[in-house]
Structure formats: C-alpha cells, structure tokens
Specification:
The structure holds 2 protein chains of 2 kinds. By secondary structure, chain A is α+β, with helices and mostly antiparallel strands. Chain A has 2 domains: 167 residues, no CATH class; 166 residues, no CATH class. In chain A, strands 1, 2, 3, 4, 5, 6, 7, 8, 9 and 10 form a 10-stranded mixed beta sheet that branches. In chain A, a hairpin with an 8-residue loop joins strand 5 and strand 6. The longest helix of chain A is centred in the first third of the chain and has 37 residues. The radius of gyration of chain A is 29 Å and the shape is elongated. In chain B, helix 3 runs parallel beside helix 5 and helix 5 packs parallel to helix 6. Chain B is globular, with a radius of gyration of 17 Å. Classes of the chains: A alpha+beta, B alpha/beta. Chains A and B meet through helix 1, helix 8 and helix 12 of A and helix 2 and helix 3 of B. The structure holds adenosine-5'-triphosphate (ATP) and magnesium ion (MG). Adenosine-5'-triphosphate (ATP) binds next to strand 1 and helix 1 of chain B. Magnesium ion (MG) binds next to helix 1 of chain B.
Chain lengths: 344, 224
C-alpha cells in the first residue's frame, strides 16, 4: 500500500496549494530566463550565432571594438594563412526608405566568408524583422553618409545586434560611409590554430560578448533575477515542506510507534515532493513553451529546451534539498510525543 | 508461563535542574494469555511504566526481558522490529492515521509487521477482525467520520491484526461511555483469549478490573 499516494488523495487541497506554489515560482523563473535569453539574442544574435572561435582587436582599443583598427598587412597575413578566418566591422547607423522613414540598424561588413552574408557593392541584406516591418526585396534604401543607394537583396533570420536589426553591406560601401580603410575585428573559428598576434588582443566568443557594455550589464541584472528566483523558490519549498511536516508531527509519531521505519517516512515525503514538483514543473514547462509561441512579435523571448531542462533539474534538486532539510524533524519525532498529544 | 518480566526498572526525569525519580524499582511479570491490570493513583507512574515496557521510551535503569531476550540491550532498530511485529498498542485516544480508511489502517499494520500473508489471506484476516469489532459496514470510512467508540474499536483491531505476543493498553476505555467501555473490554478479552495474546492494561475504572486475571497496584513509583 502506498501511503504517500493515499495521503495526497485524501489531502488534495493541501498538496494542490503546495503544487501551485512550485508551479508559480518555476513558471516565473522560466519566463524571466526566457526574457533574459531573448534579450541577449536581441542584443547579440550576430555574435552568439557564430561558431566558437577567437576574436582579435587592437590592443590600443582597450577592449572597445569601435575603437579598434586592424593593420591591413596583419589582416592580409592572417587571412591568407587561415582560410576560414574573416575580418569584420560593426557600426550602428540609420537607413532611410523611399518615404524617408528612418530605421536604426547595425551595419556589418566582412571579408569573403561563409560566416557572414557576402554582399555586392550597392546591395544590402537585412534581418528578417525589417521584412516584417514592410520592406521588400528590390526596395531602395539610403544613408546620409553614403553617396549611392542600397538595393535590398534579401533577408536573413536572427541577425540582431545591440537590439537593432543587422544590415550586411559590402566592404567598399562601408569604407566610404565610415571613412576608414581598416576593419575592426578578426575572427578565427575553432578548429583552426589561434596564433598570438603582436599588437592584437584575443577574446573567446563569450569574452567578446562581455566587452559590449550594454550586453554584460543587461545579462548581469537578468541573471541576478533568475538566481534570486531560484534561491527564493528554494526557501519557499523548504518553508512549505517544513510547515507541512510540523502539522504532521503527530502522524509521524503514531507511525513510528506502530513500527514504521524512519526511512519509510522519508521515502513517503520524497515521493510526495517528487510527485508535486514533477506535475508543477510539467505544467509550467508546457505553459512557458506555449508562451514561447504566443509571445508578441516585438517581445524578445526565447526559452530553449536546454535551459528548460537545466532549470527543471535545478528545481528538482532544490525541492529535494528543501524537503530533506525540513524533514530532519521526522528523524527527531519521538513516538511518545504523538501519544501524549491528544486526539488524531 | 512467564513471557515478559520487568526487573528493578527505574525512571528518572530531569526537568531543568530538578531530577525526579518516577519509577523507583518496579518488578512484575506477565503470564502468557492473561490480562494484567495496572491500577493506582494519578501520577503514580502507570503510563510511564507501560511505555517503557512497550519500548516507546528507555528505562533509566533495570532490565526488561521479553521471550528470553533482554530488551534493554537492544538497538533502536531491534526495538522497532519488536514493536512492529510482536507488540500491539491501544491508547486513550485511537491515534488512527487520518488519511487511511478503516480497512487501510489494518493493511498498513500488516505491512509494517511484515506478516507474510498473501493478498487473499490478508483480506480474509481483515474481514474476520472487522466482523469481530462489528465494523464491516464501515470498512471504507475515514477516521474523521467515525464515532469515538468506533475509532477505539478500530484501534484495537489495528493493535492485534498482526497477532502480537503482547498487547499494551493505556486506559483504552477512558474516552468511552460505560456501555461502550464494557463492549470494548469484552472485545479485548475475547480477542486476546482466542489469539493467546498477553495483555498489560492501565485502567482507572473499577468496573474494568472484572476482566483482568491479575491486578497490580502502583503507588509512588513502586508496586504495592
Ligand atoms: N516526559 C516526562 N518528563 C517529565 N516528567 C514526566 C514525563 N512523563 C511523565 N512525567 C511525570 O511522571 C509522573 C507519572 O506520570 P504518568 O503519566 O506515568 O502517571 P500515570 O500513573 O499514568 O497518571 P494518570 O493516571 O493520570 O495517567 C507524573 O508526575 C508526570 O508528571
Ligand atoms: Mg497515565
């Protein structure tokens, strides 16, 4: 006979309240971490979607890629040795359409590479979000620093930088617009050797992401929120299980008096905790995943399966630890206590 | 035949700075299949003696022998096993498990005592005892919906379903009226006699002494 299950069946309300607490905190955590991830995609999808590798920028730029200029001769050397390497530049700017509507974009240009869109002079490839805003292939766009016109050549998915859609342009156009001859960055994908280059400082992808000031600040606060939620839910679990166990001291005493093993009582508690947590988590996973689909277009929300699984495991562990800590009382209960305390 | 002996058992409770000796060297023995009643003034230490004998709390000193085994030398786990399979308890209140039906209370006890009954036999055994306590019609009821007398009868059934060697009962009729008390005593007597169970019972009620084979009177922590 499964007494853990019998109790859940008889005290449905109590267990439902506990389950809904677990559900609410886990759901909130899923949503917030979905937002954190969504914002991070919105801020740096361009970089995050690159394979692992190594970025290089000029030492004198003091970790600010905007200020970095790569010496063309060094660039030449690296690119000739490493076929997959690319030099790139990123600049925030504006595009105007026929109706003179202005849109903020991140101009990105690169040397010939499979990692980035390769665009001919006078052409432009845009992030899909601009298509959703009404731009079409063949539209012409202008920029006040550019003498010619850009013709929209196509759209690509998930290319965002600094919360703006990315606009891939040709290197020659870029050089004219920003009056530079040098590129800002070199990128060598993993699988190649990463040479130490004199005068250049190297960064892994995540190190590079953290040099983008808005990115690290934003992620830091969002991750703080997620971790706070996890800590708070841990406390909530422990407190609720504790209160439940306190109410059940008499019961545990009786069960011990008739000879039930302490380990059986722990198993009973763990079974109940697992049951509640699994159901609550399943519900909040289902709901947050559907939120993934129904989230409004403008809302950066992205909750991956990996994050969901990771967080679920964290919640299970927290639930287990909380229940076990609060269950230490079970060990202490004396059978006599229950018998001397009146009616059950 | 003596099945259970208590030898010079002492119990001292320490409350704060004060140590008080409640049991001052008790000797008694229980004969197999007989009912021994423990009487005495309130506070004389009856319940304390009963719970020590039943392995629910340790004695400060002395020896308890059950079936030739020295209980005072046993580990917690060994005592738990004895409690689970060889002892039964009835207390002043029923102390049933609130989320189990009458029938399930008995199933639980059989499981805890690790009785080797098969499912079918278990059912039969439970049906039999439910008939004896006249609770067949309420076997699917939860404790909350039973009357005090019904609960106490279920508690008695739970205390003997696993055929313990010794039944410990602390004022089992205290919460019942005179008619119900007699019924319950009648029940304990019949069940223990048919199953050859040895009983140690604390009581306040003069009327209940009629059901006992022996009467032991306690006074100030000693047997008179
Ligand atoms: N855990 C304890 N700590 C301290 N003192 C205790 C404890 N248990 C019992 N006592 C004391 O031991 C004495 C005997 O208590 P006990 O319950 O054994 O009496 P009793 O004979 O069963 O009385 P009653 O007939 O009223 O049930 C009492 O004075 C009681 O206060
Ligand atoms: Mg008493």
């Amino acid at each position: 006979m499964n007494i853990a299950w019998k109790e859940i069946k008889k005290s449905k309300v109590r267990f439902m309240i506990l389950g809904s607490i677990v559900f609410l905190v886990s759901f909130l955590t899923f949503i917030i971490s979905g937002l954190a991830n969504g914002l991070s995609q919105d801020n740096a999808a361009l970089i995050k979607n690159l394979p692992d590798g190594q970025f290089y920028m000029n030492e004198d730029a003091e970790e600010t890629y905007n200020l970095s200029l790569i010496d063309p001769s060094i660039q030449e050397k690296v690119l000739s040795k490493q076929e997959q390497a690319a030099a790139l530049s990123i600049q925030m700017g504006f595009l105007n359409d026929d109706e003179d509507k202005q849109r903020s974009v991140a101009f990105v240009t690169s040397t010939d590479s499979t990692l980035f869109e390769n665009v001919k002079e006078g052409e432009i490839v845009l992030d899909r979000s601009l298509e959703e805003e009404g731009l079409k292939v063949g539209d012409t766009l202008t920029n006040n620093q550019f003498s010619g016109k850009f013709v929209v050549k196509g759209f690509v998915d998930q290319q965002k930088y600094s919360h703006a859609p990315v606009a891939f342009i040709n290197m020659e156009n870029y050089k004219e617009m920003h009056r530079v001859n040098e590129m800002q960055l070199l990128f060598i994908p993993a699988g190649n050797e990463f040479p130490a280059i004199k005068g250049l400082q190297s960064f892994s992808n995540s190190e590079f992401l953290n040099t983008i000031p808005s990115y690290s600040a934003e992620q830091l606060s969002l991750n703080m929120i997620v971790w706070f939620l996890i800590v708070i839910s841990g406390l909530l679990f422990a407190i609720f299980f504790y209160m439940m166990n306190v109410q059940k001291i008499g019961l545990y005493g009786i069960l011990k008096a008739i000879g039930v093993k302490t380990s059986t009582l722990f198993k009973m508690m763990w079974t109940q905790m697992l049951f509640i947590t699994v159901i609550a988590l399943a519900l909040s996973i289902a709901l947050s995943q559907s939120f993934n689909f129904i989230a409004p277009d403008g809302m950066p929300f992205s909750l991956t399966a990996v994050t969901t699984v990771q967080l679920s495991i964290v919640f299970l562990v927290i639930g287990f630890v909380g229940a076990t800590l609060s269950g230490i009382q079970i060990k202490k209960v004396e059978p006599l206590q229950a018998i001397q305390q009146g009616e059950v | 035949m003596t099945i259970f002996t208590i030898n010079d058992v002492r119990k001292t409770f320490i409350t704060g700075e004060v140590a008080e000796e409640i049991l001052k060297g008790i000797d008694l023995s229980l004969q197999q299949g007989e009912i021994t009643a423990l009487v005495g003034a309130s506070g004389s230490g009856k319940s304390t003696l009963l719970t020590i004998a039943a392995g629910l709390q340790p004695a400060s000193d002395g020896q308890i022998t059950f079936n030739g085994r020295n209980m005072t030398d046993m580990s917690q786990e060994q005592i738990r096993k004895v409690r689970a399979s060889e002892f039964g308890f009835v207390f002043q209140s029923a102390h049933l498990v609130p989320f189990l039906t009458v029938e399930e209370q008995l199933i639980l006890m059989l499981e805890v005592s690790q009785s080797k009954l098969k499912k079918g036999q278990q059912k039969k055994e439970i049906g039999h005892i439910l008939k004896l306590i006249d609770m067949e019609h309420r076997k699917n009821a939860y404790p909350a919906s039973l009357s005090g007398g019904e609960r106490q009868r279920v508690a008695i059934a739970r205390a003997i379903i696993h055929k313990p060697k010794i039944l410990f009962a602390d004022e089992p009729t205290a919460s019942l009226d005179s008619k119900r008390s007699k019924d319950v005593m009648e029940l304990i007597r019949n069940l223990t006699k048919t199953l050859n169970i040895t009983t140690l019972m604390v009581t306040h009620d003069e009327e209940m002494l009629a059901y006992a084979d022996h009467i032991i009177t306690m006074k100030d922590g000693l047997v008179e």
